[in-house]
TrEMBL record:
Record: active site: K361
Function description: Catalyzes the first step in hexosamine metabolism, converting fructose-6P into glucosamine-6P using glutamine as a nitrogen source.
Keywords, in A-Z order: Aminotransferase, Cytoplasm, Glutamine amidotransferase, Repeat, Transferase
Catalytic EC class: transferase
BP GO terms, sorted: carbohydrate metabolic process; fructose 6-phosphate metabolic process; protein N-linked glycosylation; UDP-N-acetylglucosamine metabolic process
Cellular component terms (Gene Ontology): cytoplasm
Record carries keyword Transferase: yes
Protein name: Glutamine--fructose-6-phosphate aminotransferase [isomerizing]
Complexes and interactors: Homodimer.
Broad class of where this protein is predominantly found: cytoplasm
Domain SIS: 43-182, 215-356
Enzymatic reactions: D-fructose 6-phosphate + L-glutamine = D-glucosamine 6-phosphate + L-glutamate
Keyword Cytoplasm: yes
């Protein structure tokens, strides 16, 4: 059932190629520059009247939501908040007319997420769920359900459910942007062309997984690991750190790269591995400065960069490359490198990868 892979996690990392392809099927028209989400029970008018989005999620799904916040604000111009579900209920949330709550949960059974959704629904706030499990509890609690088509995920560490959640968040944000006149169909044509290239580009990353393995082995006994990213890559840095700590039991922290100098930099020691997402985009130069700050403390920089970047090698100790893509979509590629890094680190440390200690696939207690 592992189809020749040593672990479900490695199989599921590879399945992202088809999982993203399947999640897109029937939902995008490259010719028209349009997104079709027929499961979305909202009229064009309701989409235009949205004043605020509230995302509710836990763990890896919360990281997907954090990227979603950037997308809803940047593409569709809709104010978006995101909360960890176990916090949301206890802080007397303020609801507005025109608010939409989006719950993200791969299992559809996370108790904290269900409780937060019931809370917003009790105020008659429209609700939407993004989940991977048909017929799960969340699907009975919300007004609309968008399914990720990832197929069953057996490994406790979420991988293909995360990248397919991101895929749906991209589609939803672009759909809202179109309805609200924030993007043109012409722009969306280009966006869809780029998005359809992502599965093949993930395959290219998988074809070079040995380089990620070598890097993982070189740092498998580090005392602690840091992950830095800015803007769209900040949530990906958090996800890289969570993957590593969950399955390899190494201490790992993810930070917004610009926040490093406000405290965490004190933790850097000679040789501390600092994974920095340094793909080309509006914050690239700032990320290069962050890399220099890290190097000045003798820490070791592992950069994730585009394969056409000829500059990064001057600053980073190790460069792990991803195929060139638009800045907007590159998080879908960077995360695959981080999943592989976590996987091969755990493998080198002899950990129980598919069933890490103390963790369960779905957390049904609050
Ligand atoms: C991490 C992981 C957890 C889940 C979290 C929420 O690999 O799997 O952090 O993301 O427990 O689970 P769902 O998405 O089922 O609500």
């Amino acid at each position: 059932e592992k189809a020749g892979y040593e672990h479900f996690m490695l199989k599921e990392i590879h399945e992202q190629v088809s999982a993203i392809h399947n999640t897109l099927a029937g939902k995008v028209s490259e010719l028209e520059g349009t997104i079709y989400l027929k499961e979305l029970n909202m009229t064009e008018d309701e989409i235009r009247r949205l004043s605020r989005i509230q995302i509710l999620a836990c763990g890896t799904s919360w990281h997907a939501g954090l990227l979603g916040k950037y997308l809803f604000e940047q593409l569709a111009g809709i104010h978006c908040d995101i909360d960890i579900c176990s916090e949301y209920r206890y802080r007397n949330p303020v609801m507005d007319d025109g608010m939409l709550a989006i719950a993200i949960t791969q299992s559809g059974e996370t108790a904290d997420t269900l409780a937060a959704v019931r809370e917003v629904a009790s105020y008659n706030c429209p609700t939407l769920a993004i989940t991977n499990v048909v017929g799960s509890t969340i699907t009975r609690e919300v007004d609309s359900v968008l399914y990720t088509r990832a197929g069953p995920e057996i490994g406790v560490a979420a991988t293909k459910t995360f990248s397919t959640q991101l895929t749906l968040l991209y589609l939803l944000a672009v759909k809202f942007a179109l309805s609200r006149g924030k993007l043109s169909h012409n722009y969306v044509k280009g966006f869809i062309t780029d998005l359809r290239k992502i599965p093949g580009q993930i395959q290219q990353i998988l074809n070079q997984k040995e380089t990620v393995k070598e890097c993982a082995e070189a740092f498998a006994h580090a005392k602690s690991y840091f992950f830095l990213g800015r803007h769209l890559n900040y949530p990906i840095a958090l996800e890289g750190a969570l993957k590593l700590k969950e399955i390899s039991y190494l201490h790992a922290e993810g930070f917004a790269a610009g926040e490093l100098k406000h405290g965490p930099i004190a933790l850097l020691e000679k040789g501390t591995p600092v994974v920095t997402i340094a793909t080309k985009g509006q914050t690239y130069d700032k990320v290069l400065s962050n890399i220099k700050e890290v190097k000045a403390r003798d820490a070791t920089v592992i950069a994730i960069a585009g394969n056409k970047d000829t500059e990064i090698g001057k600053y980073a100790d190790v460069v792990l490359t991803i195929p060139q893509s638009s800045e907007l979509l590159s998080p879908l590629l960077s995360v695959v490198v981080l999943q592989l890094l976590a996987y091969y680190t755990a493998l080198a440390r002899g950990c129980s990868i598919d069933k890490p200690r103390n963790l369960a696939k779905s957390v049904t207690v609050e």
